Amino acid sequence: MNLTLWIAAGLLAVVALSGGISKAFVPKEKLAALHGGGWTADAGAGFVRTLGVLELLAAAGLILPAALDIAPALVPVTALCWVLLMIGAMITHGRRGEFAFVALNLVYLAVAAFIAWGRFGPWPFTG
């Protein structure tokens, strides 16, 4: 199960990294033109960039604390924060009628909840 949790964290970190890079470094006008990026037209550039930075931090927080053995308890905390971020994303996409993205965010939420459950519960990094 430890390997499964590592794989889940790695996959979610890739999702967070790609989303974070695009939101932090791509102008919001370009994001708004992309499929699923229409919500950025209604948001401020600073807000979009902040979400990008949070996603970059999440990518790091899902892997680095455990890999470096420096405060590995931050991994499930990061996963819980990702759950909250995905709830916000689901609400945003739901209000816009983008239900395919709501479903995708629900999958990401489930993966993050699995990581939090596993690392807070039966398979913590410290024992």
From TrEMBL:
Keywords: Membrane, Transmembrane, Transmembrane helix. It is found in: Membrane. The chain crosses the membrane at residues 6-26, 47-67, 73-92, 99-120. It comes from the Bacteria. Coiled coil: none annotated. The keyword Transmembrane helix applies. This is DoxX family protein. It comes from Nonomuraea rosea.
